[in-house]
Amino acid sequence: TPFFDNKASFQRGVNQVVRRTAIQLADNLGRVRGTSGINSDLQDARGNIQFDESTWYFGTDPFGFKTPTPSYYRAAVQSFRRFNASLENCEAVFDARADNLLQLLDGMASDLGNTSDILRRRSEEFNAGWFDTRADDRFWFSFGQLYAQNALLQAARADFGNVIRERNLGTVWAEMERQLQASLRIQPAIISNGREDGWIMPTHLATMGFYILRVRSNMVEIRAILDR
Asked: Exposed, middle or buried: residue 223 (CB in 10 Å: 0-12, 13-18, 19+)?
């Protein structure tokens, strides 16, 4: 609906990052250079977290009772926890190599590029200001995406600490985190999608898009250093 869906949009943004990370964990981070077998817990988590977001207990396509989406997501959480427990017991692998960090950042930068384009198109094609009832969906989706990436990158800073030190990434990594945290301080009570040169109704989508591109530029810079 046009109203009361901000939390759902935020959650979809978070879920998008979790899905991307689940793929990276199963395909790269949770195995040794792609030659070892895929961790079964990560494989299960990847499959469950990709389940669609709108299935409830009963549906019409096909008609009948169904397993709701939250059940799949809870199963994915349990799989991630089992993998984490295996890591603690040295029974699983987390391959914190530079090329794996590069691929992780590459996927995140790609997602941010797509989100910035969504914000740009909405900002250019609709200038209804406070009365754009879909602008908040785009804003809170991007906010959720940045929120999840901020948490993920803080964890990655610890997991890939050796790579960050060896490649002298500390300064640019800190700047990336600073830009992420600055973007998360933008929390207007009502989202406005006004003209960029307007003086009455602000353009929160363009503001969020600006911060997204700043974060993405830091990611691209780190990728370039890792790729040398």
From this structure: middle
